[in-house]
Design goal:
Elements (H helix, E strand, L loop, with lengths): L9 E2 L1 H9 L4 E4 L3 H6 L6 E2 L2 H5 L13 E4 L4 H12 L4 E4 L2 H7 L16
Parallel strand pairs: 1-5, 2-3, 2-4, 4-5
């Protein structure tokens, strides 16, 4: 049974937090390293879209789990969800990305676990 429609669904930041908060799905941040380092959602897994598009393997924490893709504003995460669906991964993305996540008052941390910012 799939939690999401393959590559077709979009979630609000609040819905994404609920879906990934219990560990049933994984939040996959597809921004580049510099953006990730500045600020990301706690518990998110990092795999840049550029690497995903080049065919990189999914991190172990992502394999065989539903994925909620997130980027800065929602464009790259839509692409990521489509790429993941083509790999037979159950994936959706977050409308508005990390900008909307932060605007919703959801936590953002930097690579040291301190308060982060959206770059």
């Amino acid at each position: 049974m799939f939690l999401f429609r393959r590559g077709a669904g979009r979630l609000t930041p609040e819905q994404a937090r609920i879906r990934t908060g219990d560990g049933a799905a994984v939040l996959l941040d597809v921004r580049e390293r510099q953006e990730w380092s500045a600020g990301h959602a706690p518990g998110a897994v990092h795999l840049p879209l550029s690497r995903l598009a080049a065919g990189a393997a999914l991190p172990p924490d992502v394999r065989d789990r539903p994925v909620v893709a997130i980027c800065r504003s929602g464009n790259r995460s839509q692409q990521a969800a489509k790429l993941l669906a083509a790999r037979d991964v159950d994936a959706v993305d977050v409308t508005g990305g990390m900008k909307a996540w932060a605007e919703a008052g959801l936590p953002v941390v930097d690579e040291r676990g301190q308060a982060g910012r959206i770059a």
